[in-house]
Amino acid sequence: MKRLSAFLTSMLASSAFAALDVGDVAPDFSAQASLGGKEFTFRLSEALKAGPVVLYFYPAAFTQGCTVEAHNFAEAMPQYQALGASVIGVSTDDIETLDKFSVSECRGKFPVASDASRAIMKAYDAVLLWKTHYANRISYVIAPDGRIAYVYSAMNPDRHVENTLAAVKALVERGK
Q: What distance in Å separates the CA atoms of residue 141 and residue 55, rounded to the nearest whole number?
């Protein structure tokens, strides 16, 4: 029993450090996305031309925590926009589900993208350890130069907006 406990502890501890590090180059990607129910192709490289990008991964649309997190990001969008930042959420949900989620839970304020192949999740070390079909709840702030400026990982959705907003503010202040 002690070995199993030690193994599980080491696996959970290593997963906490599996995320990309601050300073790493953010993997570029494009994905089918929905904003207010309208589908388009999101390209990270294009979004970065306009300013910092908050890329957040979440397990599944319309689940309790993911709904709370989407509402929180939607409410904070004016603050992100005032700083020149954009937000994109990513999950393995199909685009039809995200069309609905982008309207009802994201309130048409920011896009959500489908990563059914899990390629983006894998590139960002955002695969949920115990349910690999789902994303871990992890948020990245990516600077316009394409480097990771901040990483926050917690299954509780409550502090992702607060922390990423503070990181974007700090990034913008450093750039002045």
A: 6
Paired with 100 in beta bridges are: none
CATH for the stretch 18-175: 3.40.30.10
Q: Which of 166, 165, 140, 162 is nearest to 153 (CA)?
A: 140
Q: Is the dihedral of CA 161, 166, 170, 172 positive or negative?
A: positive
The model carries a pTM of 0.88
Task: List phi, psi (to 5°) of 93.
Answer: -60, 150
Taking all residues of the chain, what is their mean pLDDT, rounded to a whole number?
90
CA distances from 119 to 45, 86, 91, 123, 163 (A): 17, 21, 11, 6, 26
| Structural domain boundaries in the chain | 18-175
DSSP result, 78-100: HHHHHTT-EEEEEES--HHHHHH
